[in-house]
Amino acid sequence: MSSCILHVDIDAFFASVEQLRNPRLRGVPVAVGSGVVASASYEARRFGITAGMPLRKAREICPALTVIEGHAPIYRCFSERIFAICAEYAPAIEAYLDEAYCDWNGTERLYPDPTAVASEIRRRVRKETGLAVSAGIGRNRMFAKMSTKSAKPDGLRRLLPSEEEAFIRDLPASRLPGVGPRTERLLEKLNVRTVGEMRLLSRESLRAMLGLPGLLLYDRCRGEDTRAISRREVPRSIQRETSFHEPAIALDVIEGTLYYLTERASSTLRRLGLVAHQLGVKIRYADRVEESAVRKLPAPTQLDQGLFAFAVRLLRSLFVRRAALQLVGVVLSGLGLDSGLRQLSLLEGVGSTAGLRREARLLESLDTIRERYGHASVVRGKSLHLLGKLEQDDHGFILRTPCLTK
Ligand code: TTP
Ligand code: MG
How far, in Å, is the centroid of ligand 2 from the Cα of 338? Predict the structure, then answer.
C-alpha cells in the first residue's frame, strides 16, 4: 500500500492574523516585519512584495502598504490551535511555525478518503480560527509540501503517484524543498535550472558541492524523500498573556484575568496531551517596568487548580508595587507527554488522588462542552470576578488579545 502524507500551511500567516485582528486591514496590502518583510498579505504580493524584501523597498513599490511589527505570542496561539485540529485526525504530526506534516499511515481504515479529511480540516480551521490554510497530499513529505505550494492560496491538492513525474520534472530547481537561494545560485552556475536537469548531476558531485544535504537533493530531484514524520511535536512552552483595557490595580480583576489565562493555557495543554513541569508569570506595570519569574511545579500537571494556585502565589510575589498593571501573562514550560493516570498517582502527597481524579474527569467534560459551545459557556473560579467587568462573547471574555477570546 502506498503511503500518504498530508501537509498544511497557513496562508500569509502573520499578515492574515493581523487582518483578522483589524478589519480595516482586510483587502489592503499589509506586511509584517521589522527591517525586512516576514509575511506579506496576498494584496501586497500583487505589488511584487515578498518575504525577505527590505521594508524600505516594499514601501517604495507600494506606498499604501501598512507595516506592522508583529505579535509573536498571538501568532503562536493561532498555530497551536490549528495544529491541535490536525492532531485530532492523524496519529503522528510534526509541526513547524505555520506548517504541519500529518502521517496518514495506519489510519486508512478510519479515514479512507484523505481528500475528504483534508477538506474537513480546512473547513474547521476556517470556522474555528478565521484563517485560511492550504493543504497538499502526496506519497511523501516533499510531494505533500510541493502540492500545498501549488494549491495556494486557500486550496487543496492531492498529487497521485502517477502524476508525480510530470509535476516535478520541469519545475524550477528552487521549488524543491531544501534548495535555498545559495544552492540555486550554485546550480545556475552549472546551467541547471529545472528539477529534471538536476538529475544530470552525479551523487558525488552534489555531495562535493553541498555536503550531506547534496545527498538528500540527489534523491529528491528523483521524487524520493524517505524522511519519516516524527511522532509528536512537543512545543517548548504554552504562553497566554493579555494587556488590560485600562491599567488594573484591583486584585480581583488581575487574579481573575490570570485565572482565565491559566485556564486557556491548561486547556491547550490537555488538548495536546501534555503536562507542564514549570510555570511562569509575567507582569508589566503601566510605567512599562516588567517583572517575571519561572518556578518548577511541585509535580507535573495539566489540571487547572494546581496550576492556578501556583500561578497566583507567583503573581503575589511579583506584584509588590502599589501601581497599576498594564499586562499579565502565564507561561507553561518544561512540557512533556502526559502519561495519564500514572501521573496522577505520582501526585499522592500533593493533594488527594481521588480529588485530582475528580478534577481530571470534570475538566474532561468541561473541555468537551467548551469545544462545542465556546469557552464562555462555563465561567469558573476566579474568572467569575470578570463577569460584569469585561464584555463576553460565545468564545470567552473579550480581551485585548483577541485570539485568547476565541
Ligand atoms: P511562510 O509559510 O513561508 O509564509 P506565509 O505563511 O506568510 O505565506 P504563504 O505560506 O501563504 O506563502 O512563513 C510562515 C510565517 O513565517 C510567515 O507568516 C512569517 C514567518 N516568516 C518569517 O518570519 N521570516 C521569513 O523570512 C519567512 C519566509 C517567514
Ligand atoms: Mg504559510
Answer: 30
The residues, ordered by sequence, that sit 6+ positions from 96 with a Cβ below 8 Å of its Cβ are: none
Q: pLDDT digit string (tens) for 225-266?
A: 988 787 555 778 999 999 998 999 999 999 999 999 999 999
Q: 99, 164, 241, 359: which is the annotated catalytic residue?
A: 99
Last residue in a domain, options 52, 72, 92: 72
Number of domains in the chain: 3
Q: Using most ligand atoms within 8 A of CB, pick from 98, 131, 133, 154 the residue to mutate for ligand 1.
A: 98
E strand spans, 309-399: 325-337, 392-393, 396-397
User: Would you call 99 a catalytic residue per the annotation?
Assistant: yes
Residue 343 sits in a domain whose CATH number is: 3.30.1490.100
Rounded Cα gap, residues 147 and 116, in angstroms: 16
For the segment 82-110, the average pLDDT, to the nearest whole number, is 86
In angstroms, rounded to a whole number, what is the distance separating the alpha carbons of residues 318 and 309?
A: 15
- CA–centroid distance, 134 to ligand 2, in Å, is 8
Q: Are 90 and 82 in contact (CB under 8 A)?
A: no
What CATH number does the domain containing 52 carry? 3.40.1170.60
Assigned domain for 206 exists: yes
